[in-house]
Design goal:
Rossmann fold, mainly alpha, about 190 residues, 2 domains
Length: about 190
């Protein structure tokens, strides 16, 4: 379950509704018109639609996702849906993997294996450039640092969060990170 995509989807949906993204009250009102559920593939369905990456992984959504993600009513609604999904899909024979800034501290603090994947803003900017072909690296890095600053608090994980296993991903490939996690899972 990619919780960041859930917040991006809500942001995109609100923008499509013409919501004033600078007003928490407007976000609260517009949120009432969204029927949300998490489907079997762990994607967020909003009013019968699951948005494509092209809809939600762009600078337009990026500019507003922190505002939406920090709205207490949006957080409450999404966290409830995410916990409901876990309660109904996780079992000893079915592992649910959750990725997000507060996955191991807010959504599933009781999970047996929880990680903090450390990556510098420089490394994340390089990855984002490769994935999305975004702005020049320095501008992307500045946007990442700005978002990190806005997202401080609200129970989001830090390297010091109790019970989290820290993996420094700056010099590891995605496959190497997955291999480390799978090794822990096998030993669990």
């Amino acid at each position: 379950m990619l919780t960041g995509k859930h917040y991006r989807s809500v942001t995109h949906a609100l923008m499509c509704e013409g919501c004033d993204m600078t007003s928490q009250a407007a976000i609260d009102r517009a949120l009432q018109s969204l029927r949300m559920s998490i489907n079997a593939a762990a994607a967020l369905d909003i009013n019968g639609r699951v948005f494509e990456d092209a809809d939600i992984e762009n600078a337009r959504v990026e500019a507003h996702v922190s505002t939406v993600a920090n709205n207490p009513h949006v957080r409450e609604a999404l966290i409830a849906l995410q916990r409901h999904y876990i309660a109904h899909h996780a079992s000893p024979s079915h592992v649910v993997v959750i990725e997000g800034r507060d996955a191991g501290t807010v959504i599933a603090p009781e999970a047996g294996l929880r990680y903090f994947l450390r990556a510098s803003a420089e490394a994340r900017a390089g990855r984002r450039q490769q994935q999305r072909g975004e702005l020049p690296r320095e501008a992307t890095k500045a946007a990442i640092e700005s978002r990190d600053a806005r997202d401080q608090g609200l129970g989001r994980a830090t390297e010091q969060s109790p019970g989290l296993r820290v993996i420094d991903t700056d010099v590891l490939s995605q496959e190497q990170v997955v291999d480390r996690i799978l090794a822990d899972l096998r030993a669990f």
